[in-house]
Amino acid sequence: MSRMLKLAAAVSAMTLFPAMLATASAENLKVVASFSIIADFAKNVGGDRVDITTLVGPNGDAHVYEPKPADAAAVAAADVVLVNGLQLEGFLQRLVEASGTKAPIVELSKGGEVLKIADEPHPHEEDDDDDHAAGEAGHAEGGQHAHEEGHHHHGEYDPHAWQSVRNAEVYVKNIADAFCAADAAGCDGYRANADAYGRKLGALDAEIRAAIAGIPADKRSIITSHDAFGYFEHDYGLAFLAPEGVSTESEASAADVAALIRQIRDDKASAIFVENITNPRLIEQIAGETGLKVGGELYSDALSDAGGPAATYIDMMRHNVATIKGAILGS
Amino acid sequence: MHALHDYIVAPFVEFAFMQRALVGALMLSASACPVGVFLMLRRMSLMGDAMAHAILPGAAVGFLFYGLQIVPMTLGGLGAGVVVALGAGAVSRLTIQKEDASMAAFYLISLALGVLIVSLRGSNIDLMHVLFGTVLALNDEALVLIGAIAAITLAALVVFWRALVAECLDPLFLRSVSRLGPPVHFVFLALVVLNLVGGFQALGTLLSVGLMMLPAAAARFWASRVEPMCLLAALFGAASCICGLLLSYHASLPSGPAIILSAGAIYLLSIIAGTRGVLATRVRHISHRTA
User: pTM for this structure?
Assistant: First the structure.
């Protein structure tokens, strides 16, 4: 798989800007990253050889971003544009066209394990079914509908692929390939950086698995505000329930909220969290009604400021796991 | 009977968030719908949409100074809305320009200023989205705010009723018999802004205008006098809130659109079946011709 990727990256680079290979390396590689998490990966791979411009900064929401002229200028001047793909960055296509950039647009999620929204495994599906049986004769079809709504917004795949550390490793490989294609002289450095960072990610993956293993199996259901943790759920066996769909733009229905509250009451969900990019009021309402305390803030689609608890990707994943574990074991 | 109870009452008994949604929505109907009737009679039905954008700079200033705090952002939005409404009203009263043009000018200036201020901060969270939640997430602050707005609105309506009616239906007459004209107009504009900001808490910026205007427009097909029209509009508003919440609960639909679509259904029905609607006037028309 990764050989095909390298081939694809090399081919796209050769066809898109043959002149670059000769001219690059005099100054730093100009890289545009669509949002803060990708920028963090790029920084780790590129080191001092790249200048990174981030379009959607810390605590920003890539679902609803509106680009500024400076963004178009950055994209136009870029040597490489790194994006997530899977239709997370709805603003991107038009921005790229408008900027007239010649830079390759690299979709980092390519080659990673991608989850379909409809096919996403639902550890809580049985719970929903329980509700159907126990509640008023099959009216509480909450979760499914919310998913379908996100479905229309985002296409058929869940874009939040970086929430799986394994996918993050794929992102990093793709970045190294893209940098190599654009700046052959620095290639060895990029590969070395990517390998070193990849080892850190491997350790992070093991760390997360160990931490989750410390949570009793019947307590592994938690509530967040929007469906951003499908990959985390898939990789690490925690169930995330959310009143909003995959996109932050969709609106919750009373049935969804009621279903969540019933699950908490039946002790099927043991902690509840707000996210850094969404309105916390709905979550606070659910928490207030069930007596569950809000367990803290999770970071899903954006890093925090440099001084915050999730300034890098690794910090973000560690913070999320520690917050989740603390809240579940504390409840 | 029992099934009916399960269907209509049980959701509100079982869940506190449904009770809060109901209380908030009913208070909002009681105050926003009569205001909507006056807006409609003044032919300013689309002003609400303009105001929804006009409050952005105020909310953005609140956000700049206090971060994502609901109260400062709401107060800021209220301030910006009042400035825009009063500015537009003053221009229409004191110059030759009509209210629609001055309102458009003021709200566009305000909107551009808001976008500018939000961009200064560099964050791109959709402020309006974050600031104004859904009817399912009404916390104590939001409920108190809506309650206060409803109380102020109803009190103002009672105090200024006669002047408001005269001002809406025959402003020249009011001007000829009293000097109350301009002040009453400004009081009215302030009420509109207040109710919109209250509505934003419950329905978001896109849809709150719907709860103000649709019941009022529907009531127009049933009544010709202002008092019954206001009462009917408030009733229609309350009914669509209850219907919408139940629909959202049972059919798993987003609550805001469900409420506004319920109001829309009442409106469409009223066009056809209202005592001043299509059927009634047609029938009268035909009977006149045959007679």
Answer: 0.69
